[in-house]
């Protein structure tokens, strides 16, 4: 009975070796020790080899394999006379074992059936969508900060001064205000009459968020050397870049 176990270091080693040999176009058979094939292969009865690695073909084992069997995009058939003392890794195929075959418990089989392919496709599309949304939001934030500073000009100075004086208090007010807005939006959205108020409230919050982000960007842009002589829009763009880097880089965000 084949038992699927957790991948250990030997599985990882076999995977790396197989990946490297996947770029080779030659077939190697060295002194009955290691077999590397790009086509279906058979290990005859009473033959003993060290490792068997097959890429793009099936493997049929009658003899003895002392270390590892790695199959990519192919099936493995283990006959009753076979003796496999090492690990077995089959990716993109299936394993068929006859009764009486001597096989260790270190077996891993990854069969890419339709359900698995669909799951991988959906997961890939989801990850790609999240990545694209993050890029779009980052670009939008990077553009909005200097644009807001350019449009408001000196009217944004009180917000920047408030960031200077009480940054912790500003964060606290923003956090509590966000919770209140969420709670109020839920209550108002229950009725049809309250939906327009919810939309207006969300737009108002978005406006304050953009202005606050521009003020914070200016403050962060002034941290850089010789930034006091630069225009406010350049400071905002520089600070917005730092904010975006802090959000997207795993080290900071």
Automatic annotation (TrEMBL):
Source organism superkingdom: Bacteria
Signal peptide limits: 1-30
Transmembrane segments: 120-149, 170-191, 197-220, 232-252
Alphabetized UniProt keyword annotations: Membrane, Signal, Transmembrane, Transmembrane helix
Protein known as: Polymer-forming protein
């Amino acid at each position: 009975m084949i038992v699927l176990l957790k991948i250990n270091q030997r599985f990882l080693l076999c995977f790396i070796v197989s990946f490297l040999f996947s770029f080779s176009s030659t077939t190697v058979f060295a002194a009955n020790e290691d077999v590397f094939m790009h086509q279906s292969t058979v290990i005859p009865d009473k033959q003993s080899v060290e490792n068997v690695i097959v890429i793009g073909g099936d493997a049929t084992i009658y003899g003895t394999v002392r270390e590892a069997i790695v199959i990519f995009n192919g099936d493995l058939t283990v006959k009753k006379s076979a003796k496999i003392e090492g690990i077995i890794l089959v990716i993109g195929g299936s394993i068929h074992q006859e009764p009486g075959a001597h096989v260790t418990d270190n077996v891993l089989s990854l069969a890419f059936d339709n359900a698995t392919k669909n799951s991988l496709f959906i997961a890939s599309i989801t990850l790609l969508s999240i990545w694209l949304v993050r890029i779009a939001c980052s670009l939008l934030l990077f553009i909005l900060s200097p644009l807001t500073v350019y449009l408001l000009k000196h009217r944004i100075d009180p917000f920047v001064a408030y960031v200077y004086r009480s940054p912790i208090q500003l964060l606290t007010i923003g956090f509590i205000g966000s919770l209140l807005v969420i709670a109020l939006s839920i209550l108002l959205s229950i009725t049809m009459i309250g939906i327009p108020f919810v939309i207006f409230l969300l737009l108002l919050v978005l406006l304050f968020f953009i202005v606050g982000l521009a003020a914070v960007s200016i403050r962060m842009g002034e941290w850089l050397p010789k930034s006091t002589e630069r225009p406010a829009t350049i400071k905002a763009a520089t600070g917005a870049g730092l904010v975006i880097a802090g959000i997207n880089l795993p080290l900071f965000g």
